[in-house]
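Review form for a predicted model. The reviewer records the input and the model, then writes brief findings.
Reviewer: anonymous (R2)
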Amino acid sequence: MIVNWQGVYPAVTTQYNDNLSIDFEATQKMVDTIIKEGVDGIIALGTVGENASHTREEKLAILTAVKEVVAGRVPVLSGVAETSTQFAVEFSQACEEIGIDGLMVLPGMIYKSDEAEAIHHYQQVARNCNLPIMIYNNPITYGVDVGIAGMKILAAEKNIVSIKEATEDTRRISELFSAFGDRFIIFGGVDDIALESLMLGCTGWISGLTNVFPKESVAIYQLAKQGRYVEALEIWRWFLPLLRLDTVPKLVQCIKLCEQLAGRGSELTRAPRMPLSGEERANVARIFNEANDNRIDLSKFNLD
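Model under review:
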C-alpha cells in the first residue's frame, strides 16, 4: 500500500463550549486556519485531541466535521486509542466508513500490554480494515515498546505503512532505516527532538505545538528537508522552550492554554484534566509570551 504522508502533521485539539460539549464550529475553524498556514496533514483525536475523553459517537462526529472542513486538501488521520482490541477494530472500521484517510493506532489503553500483545493488537486492526495505518510507538507514555524485531513481524501487514517514533531515543530512527529501508514512512513524534529526527531521515513531524505556531513548524521542516540546518537551528532554538511543553504529563492543558493566549482556541479540557493554575500556569504563560514577543521574521528564509 502506497501513501504520500510527509511534512508537518499537527495533532489538533478538540474545542469545547463552556458546558464542555464539543464546539464543532470552533474545531473546524481551527483546522481550516492551520491548513491555510501550510501544514501537510491533520491528526484528529490523538492525545492532544483528548481521544479518551469522548464517546464513540462523539469521536465519529468530530471526525466527520474535520473531514468536511479539510475537504481533501490534506490527509486526515484519526487516532485509535481504545481499551480493547475489539473496540479498536470496530472504531477503525467506522473510520473507514466515513472516509478518513488513515489511522494512527495506539496500543490498548489502561492495560499495559507486553510487546507480543501489542503486536497482536496492531495485527488485528490491520487485518480487519483497509485503511493505511501508522503505528504509534510511545513506550514512555504507554509502557510498551515495539522494537525492531517486533516491527519485522508487523512489516508483513501491507497496510501498516508508517511509524510515529516516540521513544525519545533518536538512535531508534537510524535503526529503523537500517532494518527496513523505505518500507515504513517514519514520523518524529516528540516535539523537542523533532529537528534531530528530521536530520536523521524522518519524512514527517507529528506535533502538538504546531497548533500554536504552525508557520514556524513548517519553516523548520522545509529548511531541514533542504539541508539548511543552520537556518533551521535559528528557529528551532527560539521554539525549543515551547516544544518542551509537549513532553510533560499536562501537555494537553499546556498546548490549549497557549492556543488561547495566541487567540487560536480555548483552553477548556474535559475532566479529569483541569485548567492549569498557580505557578504552573504562570510558567506556561511566561514561556508563550517570551516566544511570542521574540518571533523570528520568517520572510528572510525565502521559503514558499
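Findings: Residues 7-236 form a domain with the TIM Barrel fold (CATH 3.20.20.70).
Further findings: The mean pLDDT is 97.
Recommendation: see findings above.
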